[in-house]
Known about the structure:
Blueprint: H1 2-28, H2 33-57, H3 69-94, H4 101-130, H5 169-177, H6 182-191, E1 202-205, H7 211-214, E2 221-226, H8 236-246, E3 247-257, H9 260-270, H10 273-289, H11 296-304, H12 313-322, E4 325-333, E5 336-343, E6 358-364, E7 370-376, H13 387-393, H14 410-418, H15 425-431, E8 435-437, H16 444-448, H17 452-458, E9 464-466, H18 469-472, H19 477-493, H20 495-511
Parallel strand pairs: 1-2, 2-3, 8-9
Antiparallel strand pairs: 3-5, 4-5, 6-7
Amino acid sequence: MTSKKTFLTFLFFDLLFITIAFFFMIYLKPSSLKTYLPQYIQPFLGFAFVWLVASIIGDKYNINKFNKLINLFYSIIRVDFIVVSMVLIAMYFFGRFGYSRLIVFGTILLSSMLEIIFAAFYFLRKKNKYGLDIPITFSIKPRYVFPHISYDEADFAIPVKLKKVKDSIEHKLGIKYLVTQHDVFEFLNSQIPLASIYKKDSLVLNTHTLYNLENIESESQEFFMNLHRINDFRRLNQYFIQVNKNLKFGAYFVDCVRSIHVRYNYLFHKYPYPLAVLLHISESFFHRVLPKLPVFKVFYFAFTKGRNRTLSKAETLGRLQYCGFKVKAVKQIEDKLYFITRKVGVPSHDTDPSYGPFIKMKRIGQDAETIFIYKFRTMHPYSEYLQQYIHDENELEAGGKFMDDFRITGWGKVFRKLWIDELPQLLNWIRGDVSLVGVRALSFHYFSLYPEDMQKLRVQFKPGLVPPYYADMPSSFDEIIESERKYLLKRKKRPVSTQFEYFFKAWWNIIVRGARSK
């Protein structure tokens, strides 16, 4: 309620200041009010609209997010500069070079001055009322883990005795369910102590509906395997959540998926290349794009009933992590990718997992606050929940990125190479979440890989669009840390000159030397 009241207050005074400044500048002109008012009233209304829209998008009216007066001033000046740029572009586009510069730019300058004075008064009044001069403190653990998931095997015990039992699930799987699938049985037996899990505490089904799972007693199973591929589930997350509910803590869940990779290979082996390309594009649009569009997905699932949906390895494993499982092992057997997971917690409370083409990612911002960085999607859906898994499976390559990261799509690699995916971050800059130059905004897991002293140093500043990486071009993760440390310490001593130095050095390397992020 307070934020809404503050927003409306600033909105009202902003309109008032613009109007006062406009009429005052017309009053200063050596002519009558009747001469200039009809000529400028229509452009003024357009200017006022642009001013307010830019202010709302730039989050200028959210004064409660600022804990320093200089940051508030910077936000106002930044947004007003954008408005000036838009006005100049509009004047050039419409050929309005005859407009009085006193009226146009005088209105903007006086409005900004009145706005800054009012904002300072409001901020200081709020500071005295709530004691904002108290230093901000924060505590960051050396290692971040999602609150609903434990990644340490020692944190949960296998809910069965690690010795062979007479009536185990191993025998039933071998002679009944997987009698013709020897490779699958061997894969399971190599990863799971099947001989130590009682048959009465296990369940093996071949189903693509939730009906067969909903009447099972909660937390009663130590092993569950579904022989039916997950591609045919209409509501996949609900299926995983129901399985999670039925399993004991630390229990095993096994299923399979026909991945995009398998379907891709099938098309290009069976059909001539031009036809295979056409079929691949058509199927990708129908099975991957339509289900993600707000309106079309209703018709898509009504038509397909959720069957034969296209799923990638990354989305499958990401959904499992999201729903409270830890991926223990995966293996491609014939045309299916089998996965073995363990229940390590309850499903995530995150109500906004990444799914559509335009996404916002949780990142560590200034003062250790969570910010959302906007991007065009370059990874498969739910990929953000695989950070720990990718880190455990792969090493970091030069540039600080993960090696062999299967989460990145084919077109995502093109987007990254051309920096198309970064364009939405301009909105973050307009909103004041990031600065023009600064260290990269990191995910919680990646942030946890940094030494504790660097964590504390990093959060003293806003992340940036142009990182110091492009100025120094480090070749390893340790060198990236040292590069950022050098930049941040220099920025502490010389805030303005350091920003200019790194900005021009980075763009010189990018344009002249062809520097790119690995």
